[in-house]
Amino acid sequence: MRFWLWLLIIFPRYFLRGVSWGSRLDLVPFHRFTLGKCSRIEKGVVINNGMGDVIIHDGVHTGIGCIILGPVELHRHVGLAQYVRVVGMHHGLEVDTPHHCQPSTRAPIIMEEDAFVGTGAVILGKKNGEPLVLGRYCRVGANAVVTDDIPPYTIAVGNPARVIRRWDATRNEWVRTTEEEAERLREELRARYRTRRDGG
Questions:
Q1: Which residues, in sequence order, are CB contacts of 188 under 8 Å at separation 6+?
Q2: How many structural domains compose the chain?
């Protein structure tokens, strides 16, 4: 019976639409998993929606060996290079209790259109439960560890990731940015999501 369910439901819905045979989909029925048109899930990718929805929009590409733990939303044309970790949850930190016995908390992650994350980077959702947002067309360097929002049209590198450049539309080039300017851009991004959340 399970084979026929897989053959009639899972196979045509995902594996004929860009999910590699070597990937692993750990999906539960009480959270959503959607895969947009022309999106590609490469070999060795693990996707788990046990903690929250995993929404993958059109034209998204995930490189070999990525891990995506919901809640996560990847907007159009997001790119994940090889071995990127996107972790939308946190374990408890009680010292007297084994970690696997502690409750997990949701830490939503949103990657806006055309954001790109370099090889081996780790994206960790915020512990306060607010969404961590990678803004439109931002670039995250290889092996970076992202624990805070990355503003649109910026480049972030390092551990922890910090914004080092932004796109200057008037000069039509990437320019260095200060930490104060990066924080201002970050606050503009947060304000936009607060407005959406509050129904504004």
A1: 151
A2: 1
